[in-house]
Automatic annotation (TrEMBL):
<keyword id="KW-1133">Transmembrane helix</keyword>
<keyword id="KW-0472">Membrane</keyword>
<dbReference type="InterPro" id="IPR036197">
    <property type="entry name" value="NarG-like_sf"/>
</dbReference>
<feature type="transmembrane region" description="Helical">
    <location>
        <begin position="102"/>
        <end position="121"/>
    </location>
</feature>
<feature type="transmembrane region" description="Helical">
    <location>
        <begin position="244"/>
        <end position="271"/>
    </location>
</feature>
<protein>
    <submittedName>
        <fullName>4Fe-4S ferredoxin</fullName>
    </submittedName>
</protein>
<feature type="transmembrane region" description="Helical">
    <location>
        <begin position="313"/>
        <end position="334"/>
    </location>
</feature>
<feature type="transmembrane region" description="Helical">
    <location>
        <begin position="133"/>
        <end position="158"/>
    </location>
</feature>
<dbReference type="InterPro" id="IPR012830">
    <property type="entry name" value="Citrate_utilization_prot_B"/>
</dbReference>
<feature type="transmembrane region" description="Helical">
    <location>
        <begin position="218"/>
        <end position="238"/>
    </location>
</feature>
<keyword id="KW-0812">Transmembrane</keyword>
<feature type="transmembrane region" description="Helical">
    <location>
        <begin position="283"/>
        <end position="307"/>
    </location>
</feature>
Length: 359
């Protein structure tokens, strides 16, 4: 297995050739950032790797891929650096590498294990309570999920601080963060630079499918998070306790969010089976697929649980859903879920570069 210095050295070699060629200048944000440099530090390569969205258009357009002696495969080189950077910066270290090797097994084992524990917790169910709280008390859910949500965020914050130092990011500006949010919201770097989309799954087929599935996943997740947040505000701010009616804010946000999450992750998993694994980090394929399937399970189990409200099936559906959500939270700093945070940091750093260049 290649070490991190080896991966960075190979990515640097390819970046230097790309910098001399400049054929792919308009493809995505990677190439303007690449062409702005004359030499590439380790931090520069790490920044380029996390700025890359692995659309693969540059590979299919390149005249220096194998069997040419230059043997360029920039998407794979950056993907391997990107994946390795997450593992190197993860805190505590070690968990991310383990998830790469056996992501599906780890996710499935944790979901089932947590589901069993939640099912056993129903033995001490409250004597009162409506809806889901008839099976598990609100206090128990809060006691479990509050640290399970905050501790991974703290781990991510430590990792992102390390990333920001690695790429030599300066003081954060709201204008740069806003520019990064606009780019991420539009999935600008997945339009191929020419507006026809990317050819992630097929050399000759340009499509916006990957962009749209990413948007469905992003906005579906944000709607689900907003649903949970609105329920928390209603509970603690206004004394309005669950269960909520179908026309309430938590339901109006959560149901569409769950549907979008399932459509987006299902589509991304399908595209992943069609794409060439040699143009990404092959060793991380299982972990990436596990993450996508885990997100799908969160959305699907939530929708099924809502549809089963009032039925006896809630008794086993609720532990299964809570198990998937808890697994997602705990694995966030070590699974591909972290890529969203690193990507935002890379886009923010790139927005600062553009601002500085224009000054």
């Amino acid at each position: 297995m290649q070490t991190q210095p080896d991966l960075i050295a190979e990515a640097r070699r390819q970046a230097e050739i790309c910098n001399a060629c400049r054929y792919c200048e308009g493809y995505c944000s990677v190439f303007p950032a690449l062409h702005a440099e004359r030499a590439f530090s380790d931090g520069d390569i790490t920044q380029l790797a996390n700025l890359c969205h692995n659309c693969r258009g540059c590979y299919y357009a390149c005249q220096y891929t194998a069997p040419h002696e230059f043997d360029l495969n920039l998407p794979r080189a950056l993907a391997e650096v990107r994946q390795d950077s997450w593992k190197a910066l993860a805190w505590p270290r070690g968990f991310a590498a383990l998830f790469d090797r056996a992501g599906v097994a780890i996710a499935a084992g944790l979901v089932l294990g947590f589901a069993v524990l939640f099912a056993l917790a129903q033995a001490v169910r409250p004597t009162g309570g409506e809806g889901f709280y008839a099976y598990m008390s609100h206090g128990l859910m809060v006691a479990i999920f509050t640290p399970a949500f905050l501790l991974p965020l703290a781990a991510l914050a430590v990792s992102l601080r390390g990333y920001w130092r690695t790429v030599e990011g300066g003081a954060l500006r709201l204008s740069d963060i806003a520019a990064a949010c606009r780019s991420a919201g539009r999935m600008k770097n997945l339009d191929g630079g020419h507006g026809d989309g990317c050819n992630f799954e097929d050399e000759d087929r340009f499509t916006h499918a990957r962009r749209h599935f990413h948007q469905a996943t992003l906005y579906g997740f944000l709607l689900c998070f907003a649903s949970t947040s609105s329920g928390t505000i209603l509970h603690y701010g206004f004394g309005l306790e669950a269960p909520y009616a179908w026309y309430s804010l938590p339901k109006l946000l959560g149901v569409p969010g769950g549907i979008l999450l399932c459509l987006g992750t299902g589509g991304l998993a399908w595209l992943k089976t069609k794409a060439d694994p040699d143009l990404g980090a092959r060793a991380a394929w299982g972990g990436e697929m596990a993450f996508v399937l885990l997100l799908f399970a969160v959305g699907a189990s939530g929708l099924i649980l809502y549809a089963a409200t009032g039925l006896a099936a809630v008794g086993w559906l609720l532990p299964l859903h809570l198990g998937t959500v808890l697994t997602l939270f705990l694995l966030t700093p070590y699974s591909k879920m972290a890529h969203g945070f690193y990507r935002m940091a890379a886009l923010t750093r790139d927005a600062a570069r553009k601002r500085e260049a224009a000054a």
